[in-house]
Structure formats: C-alpha cells, structure tokens
Amino acid sequence: MSLQGIYQASSRGFGFFTPDGATDRSQDLFVPPRSEGSAWNGDRVEAEVRPDPKDPARKLAVVTKVLERGNQTVIGAVERRGRETWLVPSSDRLPHPVKIVGRSGGLRPGDKVAVAVTSYGSAKLPATGTVKAAFGRDGTRQASVEAILYEHGIEREFPAPVRAAAELAPREVDPAALPGRLDLRGRTVITIDGASSKDFDDAVSLERDAAGHWVLGVHIADVSHYVTEGSPLDLEAWNRSTSVYFADQVIPMLPEALSNGICSLNPHVDRLALSCIMTMDASGEVLSHQFAKTAIRSTERMTYDDCNVLLRDGSPELAERYAHILPMLRDMAALAKVLERRRRARGALDLESQECYIVCDGNGDPVDIRVRQSGESEALIESFMLAANECVAEHLQKQGIPAVYRVHEKPSEDKAANLKAMLAPLGISLRQADNGSLQKVLERVKGTPQAPAVNTMVLRSLMKARYDVQDLGHFGLAAKHYCHFTSPIRRYPDLMVHRAIAAMLDGTLEKSRGRMAAAADRAAKQSSDREVHAMTAERDIDKCYMAQFMSAHVGETFTGTVSGVAKFGLFVALPNGVEGLLPVTALPDDRYEYDEVRMTLTGPRTKFTYTFGMPIQVLCAAADPGSGQIDFLLPGAALPAAGEKVQPPKPARTKPRDRDKAPRQSGGKPSYRPPRRTKGRRRR
Question: Can you list the domains of the chain with their CATH numbers?
C-alpha cells in the first residue's frame, strides 16, 4: 500500500513518515535507516507501507518517490575542501553538505550563509547550491538572529515602493477627512501603554449615561483609512501579517511613518479612529453597542507604571498631575474588575504565567533578563480590549458579515489524555478537559509549590489559536464570539475586521460581500501561517540572546525547576525564564528509565524519580549564542573543556510513538498564551 505525506528525518539516520490526514503522532510510521531514498527532512513524499520483518504486527514506511522538496534553501557554515567551497547545514536533520557553485568570492570558512539548492544530488553526485545571503560569522548571536529572520521570511527593510507610499502619508489629519465622523475630540480619551512604546493603536474612555449605565469607549486607530485595499502598503502588510518582537527590537508590519506617525493615537493631536462604544450595566453585561468612524484627541499618554501608582494612591505628585482623569481611571479599574469576574464566572481560564524580557545595552548585547510585572492598569486595558473584541465578533457573526475571527478550540482527545496522565502522579484527577474542570484544577493548586508546573501542563494541553473565517469561539477565554479588532497597526486580521466594519458603516457591504469573503479567507490562512513563523522566530532569537547572557555565568549555580522531561535528559527553567538541558548522562550514577506518559525519569537502582515541576539546583556548564543552546550539570560536576559539548547524542528512538514527542512536550512553548496585554508579545 502506498501513501503520500511528509518525511521527517532524525539526526540518527532513521526518520518518520506522517501520512496525509494524520491527526496525531500515533499515526506516524517509522522509516528505517537507508529507507528514505533521496528524501530530505520536510519533503513531501510517496511511501510504501510494509510489515516490520522483526514484528509483523508493526508497520514501517519506505520512501519510494519525492513529490515536492521542502528545502529550497539551506542555512549553514562555509567550509573549504581543497579548492571547493561547501556548506555544512546547521540543522542536524540535513546531514549532507551542499557544494557551493557559482560566485562565492568573499566567503570565508566559518561564515554563516544561506544557499539556494540547485540540485539535490544522487548516490554519486553531491547536492549543489548558490549563495543567496550571508549573515556573518557562524556561532555568533548576530549571525544567528539574521539567519533565523531569513529562514522565516521576515524582512527588516521595506521595499522601495512601500517606503515611497509611506512617505506620502500625511503628518496630520486632513480636515477633509472629518465630515461624517463622530467627533469625540472634546471627550476625555486616554492611551495606556508601556513607557517605551512608540505606537499607540488603542485608546479608552469611560462615562455614565443618564440611566447611570457605564459607557465604555474603545477607540482604535483607523489604519484602514490610510492603508487602502490593494495598495503597496496593504500588499506588504498582508505579506508580513504581523509585527515581530524580540529582545529590544521590533520589525513592524507597517513602516514607522504610519505606525509611529499618523496611525498612532499620540496625545493632544487629532487622529482618526474606529470606535466600539458599549453601554454596560453594573454586572458588565453589554446592553447596547455602537460602531462609528470617529475623530479623537487623546487627552493623556499614560504609562502602565504611572497608572499603577495612581490606582494604589502612592504618589501625591502624580495624583495632582493627573487630577483631571483620576476619577475616570478609578472607575475604569472598578469596571475592569467587574468584567474580569464575569469572564471567570463563565469559565475563562485563570492561567498564571510569567513573561520575561531581555534588557540590552547600547550595543544591543543582553545585560539582564527580568520578569515582567503586570499591575492593575495592564489588567484594565486587557479587560477593555477583550470586551471590544467580543462585541465586534458577535456583531459581525450575527450580521453575517465576512470577517477574520480568532479561533481557539477545545483540547483534542489526545492532548486531554496526556494532561490527565501528567496530573495523575500529583494526585490530581481530571475527568474531562472542559473549562470548568480545568479551572478547578488551577484553583486547587493556586498558591502551592505545584502551581507553576500545573499551569504549564494545562497551557501545553491547549490547542493552538489561529485565524479562521468561521466564528468558532475562544476556549481559553470561554468566549462564544471572538476576533482581533484592537491592534491594526501590528496585526493584519485586525485591519480586515476594520474594513468589514467600515463597509457596514459606509453602506458598501452588499456590493463588496463576495470580494470581502474571498479576501478574508486568504487573510486568515496567511495570518495564521505568518504568526507561526513570527512566534517561532521570536522564540529562537530570544534563546540566542539568553545563551549569550548565560555565557557570562558559566560555572555559576542556580536554583531552577524541571520544565520538561525527555528520554535524553531534563529541561530546567530558571526563575528568569532561561531554559537549558541537563543530560541524563549527568544524573547520579544509574540507568534512568523514561516514562513517556507521566514524563518522569526514574533510576531502577536508586528509585529516585525526576518529575515535571520539581525544584533542582544546576550548574551552568556551557552556553552557545549561535545555537541558543544552554547546558546544565549538577553542582560539583567538572565543567567541559573548551569546545567540548555537554549534551550527548540523542539516543536512537526506535518506535514511531517516540518520535519527537518528549522534546516537543517538554521543551516547547505553549500553543495558547493567556490573555495579558504586553505590547506585541501576547497573541490572544
């Protein structure tokens, strides 16, 4: 029997075949050594399914044909062999070097470059390729960052036509754009952002109506007014789909002339906005809502830190400075708590997680890694943005208006089963992975030493949030309707939602419905794909920065927590978010057995068990900024000699069910992050 699917190589000579339509890893088939044919990791292939000669009940796969290549470009280090120049791939899943042909002048051994594959070689001929980009010296953080961005198709610079279009954007609001807009310039409207933020795409206001109801205004920069459909700015924004954030840098979706200029709700200047104005009762229920194209003038540019101090009554000077908005700010804090209680009551998950950020010096080098502290003002803005997103999504869905929704589905049966098995050793039972049951688990461990581990387990059991043209709801928020409306400066789906609302307000919806539906479908697919690339790049780049930071702390001892368990060792997370590997060969003398379901390593002789979430002291043995790899040993162990690697080769995994499962569960990041508003980083 022949099937089509994806071949995934390992660094040990064997691989795995994932058939089309497979829903979980249990359907993967083992590909023995020398059975991959000419396939490379990531290739789409045709494979023949055969019985295992040693175990007829088990099925194997033998690749018979390569249908589509998954590696048009390979990144690695330059190596000289006589007069020939070769590329040694950085990925150990691409073990074959590539012979560089064509112009290679200026390249030096040890340079990190990208090569476009021109031939995938054969049994007698090597693979060949031409140089497409050079990033610097292999092994450096700078070269790795640029290579990661290149690999994920993330461009720092905007094309010339896009830069030219951005320069034509006005520096101030054209008076001709004001007629027909709801004029809110006389209302008290404020922005609340981080102290270092430069683009302000959301502002808020709060009043009482004649009946005493809350009137909450969420005013979002009207980016769609300046980024018109089909324009160079729009096409580039679609291509990028999201801004990318890492360390102290941002690669924006829109040029700064717009994101930090006319589209930014800067204080004391006129700006165009799209507003969602919600009338709420004392319980936070939305009684009515209004969407409007508006003109606003931000009263104050507030920072989270100042707002948090004001709400704690901690500074007479600040209270005097902001006396004109302090009553509204206190009312906002009270309403935000009502909205939060309302979300909790319906089943929104109260996941506790910490976000760390990297502090860099003037040269861009990491000098510290800190835990980001969130206060009352961060929660306030988060609550208001969630309320607007839900209100907009419900309106669009009920009116049948084509749009892009933010979808987060309930955990799969496979993920739910894994979570149950992981919680069992902690004495926690889970009958089903619904909102109420998961929240009870979180409440049970709150404030206990088990809490961080259990929160992480639940996070990793959740599905990945994505974009879709169907309003399927948001499991983590327990929201029946949800979309992204509040950040059109840095997310393309928000821009699409704005266009849908604008068409409704302008009366052009019916004649453009078909075109809007097709555009929404394309945008949902593109944005989901680009978000994955952005998040992967952010994670991998941050690892390089963290490794560079830890390279100055080699030989020091730290107290951490086991954040993952695999056959080949323990992943250990430090309080500052740094994560490294403690190899199984570095554990006290015993032959440790790995329990894949419970995620434990147990020594049969000592009977000692290493489990997910347990505290542990480790010695930083090595840190490689080029790969982002950090290696730990137990305190008292001898450090490896210069150039020596701590981590041993990963043991061969000979069963399909072992395929990468442990590393992904233990070392990977959660697919859904709890809603906490940190500019650009959280993707609800």
Answer: 2-68 (2.40.50.140), 73-138 (2.40.50.640), 160-396 (no CATH), 413-461 (no CATH), 554-651 (2.40.50.140)
